[in-house]
Amino acid sequence: MSRDFSRFSKKRYDLLVIGGGINGAAIANLAAAAGARVALVEKNDWASGTSSKSTKLLHGGIRYLENFEFDLVAESLKERFIQWKNVPHLVKPMRFIIPVYRGQGRPLWMMRAGVWLYDVLSGKYTLGSHANLSKEEVLQLAPALKKEGLVGGVSYFDAQMDDARICLENVLMALKRGVDAANYAEMVEFIKEDGKAVGARVKDTLSGDTVEIMAQKTIVTAGPWSDELRRKDTPKTRGRLRPTKGAHIVCRGNAGENAFLLQNKKDNRIFFIIPFKGNMLIGTTDTDYSGPADEVRVEEADIDYLLGQAAAIFPSLHLSRERIITTFAGLRPLVYERGSPSKVSRKHVIERNFSGIYYVMGGKYTTYRSIALECIAKVLPELAGHLPAGEHYTLVGSGLGHEEVKPIALRYGVEAESVGHLMSVYGSRFEDVLALTRTDASLKARICSCSPAIRAQVAYAVRAEMAITADDIYERRLELAYNDCPTRQCRRVIEGMLKDL
C-alpha cells in the first residue's frame, strides 16, 4: 500500500480525525460510510497507544455494577455481542470463573447476584449463561486454584479480542471507503481563521515534510494525549483527564482453558488471569499516572502487585519473575473525577472547544462503535440519517465462512496449522496473504518456531496493512512480542525482511 503524504493538500475535507486509536479509526470509518470526505492521521502507528495495551477483553464491565453504572454495562454487553457476530475471527467468547474465599473480598452471595444481573442486562445479547458453583465444581474446573478457604464461586461469559487488529480493520475499512489516512503523521499546529479551526499542519515524521490539511470539522481522538492537544488549541486550558495506568504481565504457565476474575486480598481490587497464546495474561493495575504519556511503562511495583496475588491464588503454578515473557502498560484516558482510580467512570464525553474542535475523551474499548456513531451525529448532524443502522458492522475481515483448512493447505503447500492461524488473524482475507506465496515460495516458511505465523504475513503487513517499522509488525500486526521466544528470532527475521521489501 503506497504512502502518498502529499495527497492531503490536494482536497478539502468534511472531517479531519486526529488520533488513530480505536475511537479515531471507527469515527473515520463510519463517517466515510455515511458519505463524508475524511482525513485520518496518527503520530505513531495505528493502535500503538492505549488501543493495543488493553487486557485484550471485549467485556461488559462486571465490576462497574458496583458503581451502579447499569446503562454503561448494558450498552457494553450489546456492543460486545455485535463485535462477536461481525468479526468472530477477532472476538472469542470465553468463560470466566470467580472463586470466592472465606473472609476475602466480596462474599459469595454478592458474586452470585452480580453474575445474575450481568446476564439480565445482556438480555438477547448473551454469549452464555452464568452458573453458581460449589467448591468442588470450582476445583474441578480449576484444579490449580488454592483450596484453603475456598467456599465456592460463579462463572459467566465475556470475550477475548485482538485489540490492535480490530483497530487496524477499522482503518483498513475506512481506506476502502475513500478515507485518506496516514500513520507516522503528527499534528503540530491547528490552522485557524478568526479563532475557528479550519484544519491542521501535520508533519510526516518519516520524511520531515509538513502538509496543511484543511477540513470543515476537526475531531481529536488522542486518548491520553488529549490534554496535550487541547493546550495546542488553547494554551492555558485546564486538563480534563485523569489518566490511570493499566499494567499487564504475560507469564509462562497455564491455568486451564478458562479465564479468572480474582479479588486482590489486600485492597479488594479485581484483576484477571486469562489464557493467552498458550500462556497466561495477568492484569491489570489501576493507578493514577502523572508522567508523560509516551513514557508509561510497567514498574517493579506493578509486577509485585500482579505476580504476588496471582501466585498466592495459583500456588501450584510456581509463578515467579523468571516465568515472565513480557510486560506492557497503557493509559486509560479517563475524564477527571474525584475518588479511587478504579471507581472513576469509564463513560465518555464529547466536548467542543471555542475554536470548534471536538475532543472525544474517556470511554472504554468495548463501546467504540456507539461512541463513533454518537460523535458523528453530533459533529456532522447532516450525516446522522446516513449512518449505518442496526447491528451489522462489517470490517475488512468479516464474512469468513466454514472453509476446510486441509484442502487449502494442500492447495498452497502451506502447513495446516499456519492456514488455521491465518484464518484467525485475517478472517475472510486469509487467502490474500496466501496468494503472495504463489510468486515467492520462500514466503510459505514460518517466521519462527514460536508461532505458526509465516513470512507472507510480513510482506502483507507492509504491502496491504500500512506497516512501516519492525515494531508495527512484531508487536501489532502479528503480535509476536507476546510469544514465548527467548531468542527473539522472529523479530530478527522481520527486520531482515524489511530491508528487502
Structural description of this entry:
The protein is 30% helix and 23% strand. The chain is globular. It is α+β, with helices and mostly antiparallel strands and 501 residues long.
Sheet-strand content, in percent, reads 15-25%
Helical segment tally?
14
Report on the biggest sheet. Answer: 10 strands, mixed
Query: What kind of assembly state do the chains in view correspond to?
Result: single chain
Overall radius of gyration: 23 Å
Distance between the termini: 12 Å
Shape estimate: globular
Mean pLDDT: 95
**What structural class results from the helix and strand content?**
alpha+beta
Fraction of residues in H or I helices: 25-40%
Q: Extract low-pLDDT stretches.
A: none
Number of strands: 18
What are the key terms here?
501 residues; alpha+beta; ten-stranded mixed β-sheet; eight-stranded mixed β-sheet; 18 strands
Short description:
With 501 residues, the chain is α+β, with helices and mostly antiparallel strands. The protein is built from 14 helices and 18 strands.
